[in-house]
Amino acid sequence: MPAPKPGAPVRGSSTGRPVMAALDLFGRRWNLRIVWELREDTLGFRALQQRCDGMSSSVLRQRLTELLDARVVEQQPDAAYRLTELGRGAYQALRPLMRWSGEWAAALAGEEDHR
Amino acid sequence: MPAPKPGAPVRGSSTGRPVMAALDLFGRRWNLRIVWELREDTLGFRALQQRCDGMSSSVLRQRLTELLDARVVEQQPDAAYRLTELGRGAYQALRPLMRWSGEWAAALAGEEDHR
DNA sequence: GCGCACCGCTTCGGAAACAGAATCGCCGTC
DNA sequence: GACGGCGATTCTGTTTCCGAAGCGGTGCGC
């Protein structure tokens, strides 16, 4: 299972269009979450695992190698992980989604009311 | 596997914070892609399946029930699927990510050059 | 009425991804 | 030199996904 990259065919699309590579990368479980958790902290392996409610270490390693490969995350000399410049851009791109989740919660709660 | 909803515990987080529910919902394979494909068309089941490079019908059905449940997608009387108001909001929230994928592609391509 | 094509949707066996725990080597500290 | 914490790896069992076949329903030509 190679890390998705723009320009190469990815799971679910053979065109290699960047957007498809991004959809594959972030459509893999935990990848969105990892970017989210690293948004303003640099975390070690185990600390990151804790933040993700104890996701399995094997999958965390797998995801980290994918994100490292995608230049979204980098590893410091002391082995802690943090977002690259590119990764911070991805987080910025994710922020509207976070804002949307608030509207989403409100809408579902409102609909709960008049039922 | 229940569809994630804000206010309820989800995979990877027990807090029920909306953002965690959103990260779970969109961190599931194909969900980002489905919203993307429905961004400006209303599509039938099989048409949608084609757009997603022939994803398996069983998983498509599973994802659609999740998205229907989350009020992100709705079904017309003629059974075709389209984004709800909420779903269009989600797509809008996703657009920066699409823009980012372009920068991402450029950055990776540039690094390819001086190597 | 009958065959046919298309549709949304379901079922099922095999393949791939994930979870979870045990374990390794590597530092520092005491 | 025993200990604890760390990143990382390996292994086994479960969950999820894939892919193909097939279901019932609907519309159409004949």
UniProtKB/TrEMBL annotation, chains A, B:
Transmembrane segments: none annotated. GO terms for molecular function: DNA binding. It holds the Pfam family HxlR. InterPro entries: HTH_HxlR (IPR002577), WH-like_DNA-bd_sf (IPR036388), WH_DNA-bd_sf (IPR036390). Keywords: DNA-binding, Transcription, Transcription regulation. Residues 17-109 form the HTH hxlR-type domain. The keyword DNA-binding applies. It comes from the Bacteria. Gene3D superfamilies: Winged helix-like DNA-binding domain superfamily/Winged helix DNA-binding domain (1.10.10.10). SUPFAM superfamilies: Winged helix' DNA-binding domain (SSF46785). This is Helix-turn-helix transcriptional regulator.
